[in-house]
Q: What sequence folds into this?
């Protein structure tokens, strides 16, 4: 028995996306956005990028069928420039659902990258073309494609769980080599304001550290470290 559902993404305003992208140029962006959410929204630490990068954009969610995975190529048909494809592959580490050819096709469409609670492959090719994926594992074993005609078991833009965090379509993803933080769409504006203040405060603190200031100096100036 199969399931197959496609919903529309409640896409954030372009201005909000641009501001998130701008703020995420700071050091340790995933940490900044996690801190201002009370350390919430952080995916499991085992999901890592295949090369150092920063990936920011609205989530296009994909739900795959447990125990019988297929690649999420269908997501490329509805994805827009800057989207981050977030895939619930049920934590499967021995079957890859993304590789070099898919990455090339996605990059041609302007899709920013992919986060998979599962496995990927062809990381040499993906590294060379500069298209980031974050995965739990890397394996040579692939999966069948939707174009095999065998099955169409995936749903797009539905609520999923990825890396232990609930992700809804249109949530903002802030991911880097340190971690992956999810900002719920209903809190984009307040979290953005807090993240901007936090990033600016950390930049100012960093400059004081470079000047050789002490812990006491920092506490007097900023009230915290």
A:
């Amino acid at each position: 028995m199969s399931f197959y559902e496609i919903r529309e993404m409640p896409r954030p305003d372009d201005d909000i996306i641009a501001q998130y992208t701008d703020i995420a140029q700071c050091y340790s962006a995933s940490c900044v956005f996690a801190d201002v959410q009370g350390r919430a929204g952080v995916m499991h630490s085992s999901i890592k990028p295949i090369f150092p990068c920063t990936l920011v954009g609205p989530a296009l969610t994909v739900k795959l069928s447990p125990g019988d995975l297929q690649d999420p190529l269908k997501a490329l048909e509805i994805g827009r420039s800057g989207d981050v494809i977030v895939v619930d592959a049920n934590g499967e580490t021995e079957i890859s659902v993304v590789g070099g050819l898919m990455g090339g096709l996605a990059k041609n469409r302007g899709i920013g990258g992919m986060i998979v609670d599962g496995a990927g492959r062809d990381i040499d090719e993906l590294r060379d073309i500069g298209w980031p994926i974050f995965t739990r594992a890397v394996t040579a074993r692939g999966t069948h494609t939707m174009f095999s005609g065998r099955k169409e078991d995936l749903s797009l833009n539905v609520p999923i769980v990825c890396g232990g965090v609930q992700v809804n379509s249109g949530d903002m993803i802030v991911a880097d080599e340190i971690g992956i933080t999810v900002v719920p769409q209903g809190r984009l504006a307040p979290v953005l304001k807090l993240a901007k203040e936090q990033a600016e405060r950390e930049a100012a603190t960093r400059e004081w550290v470079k000047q050789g200031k002490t812990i006491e100096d920092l506490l007097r100036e900023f009230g915290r470290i």
